[in-house]
Amino acid sequence: MEVLNEFIRLNLDSIYVLILAIFVGVEVIKHIPAVLHTPLMSGANALSGVVVVGALLIMLQADPEDYLSLGLGFVAVVLGILNVVGGFAVTGRMLEMFKKKDK
Question: Which tens digit of pLDDT belongs to each residue from 6-29?
Fold first, then answer.
């Protein structure tokens, strides 16, 4: 418990920035018009792809005995891949709505 308290005390500024970024991100996303969702989803897919590659590179450089780094890297890879796949699925569905139906 002392290690966690020390970590929080040393990184308090970063924690405040993270919390503020979460609140700002939620507010920005809530006010985006529906027309812009597909392009933004494509951008999010690209960023998630970068997250996956970055997590894999970090995991390759981590010490094999450092289970925390490996575990967090694994979680980052899994969540990034889920975000990419889900984003492409949603984008595909939205693009299907704009196709002309054949009679």
Answer: 988 988 998 999 999 999 988 887
Domain range list for the chain? 1-31, 36-103
Give residue 92's region: left, alpha or beta (phi > 0; psi -120 to 50).
alpha
**Tens of pLDDT, residues 30-89:** 887 766 766 776 777 777 888 889 889 888 998 889 888 889 889 989 988 988 888 788
CB-neighbour burial class of residue 62 (10 A; exposed 0-12, middle 13-18, buried 19+): middle
What is the distance in angstroms between the CA of the first residue and the CA of the last residue of the chain? 67
CA proximity to 76, closest of 98, 101, 51: 51
